[in-house]
Structure formats: structure tokens, C-alpha cells
Amino acid sequence: MNTWPGGIRHAMDQDEHESWNAENYPGTLQLCIDCDEPTGRCEEDGIYIDDEDGYGPLCEECYIVHKKIDERSIMKFHKLKPSSAYHRPAPAPI
Asked: CA-CA distance, 86 to 72, in Å (whole number)?
């Protein structure tokens, strides 16, 4: 948990405040909700599951993990093998 410099709440000049923030806050960096690492993105281009109000923000690595889990769930629901999801036979003509 973050505390005041020296553990004492006090006024800081602009340079001291900037230095403190640089060491103790990620600034405008967006942190991944799963791994707490910087996403490399900001609010405008953050990655979320479903939509902007969905689960996130996520870094690209965690997003890939979620998408793989989601694909497996869909395939399990439809009882598809991973290869058959992309190579379905064409429907028979009527």
C-alpha cells in the first residue's frame, strides 16, 4: 500500500511531487486486471472481454488466455473438436 514520503503527510513542491509519483504510481499506465502488469495501452484503446464495460482492462497475453478458454467453452458446448471448428463440411444442397 502506498504511503506518504517518510510516512508523514506534508506539502510537497512540484519537483518533489513529480518524483514521488514517478516512483509510486503507474501514472497513466493501464494495469491488467489479471496480472497487474502494464497493458501498454490507455483508456481509449484498452482491451476488454465483451465490450468496454466488460471484464478488463487486460494485457495482450491475458486476453489471449481468455480467448482460448472462451473458444474451448464454445467448442465444448457445441461438441466440436478444435480442427472441426474451422473445417466444417459445406451443407448439402437442397
From this structure: 13
Q: What is the number of domains present in the chain?
A: 1
In a domain, 11, yes or no: no
Domain membership of residue 69 as a residue range? 30-84
pTM, entire model:
0.49
Tell me the pairing of strands 47-49 and 55-58.
antiparallel
Q: What is the DSSP string of 14-73?
A: HHHHHHHHHHH--TTPPBPTTT-SB-S--GGG-EEESSTTSEEEE-HHHHHHHHHHHHHH
Establish if 65 belongs to a structural domain: yes
Residue 6, C-alpha cell as written in the block:
517518510
Q: For residue 24, what is its C-alpha cell?
A: 509510486
Q: What is the rounded average pLDDT for all residues in the chain?
A: 76
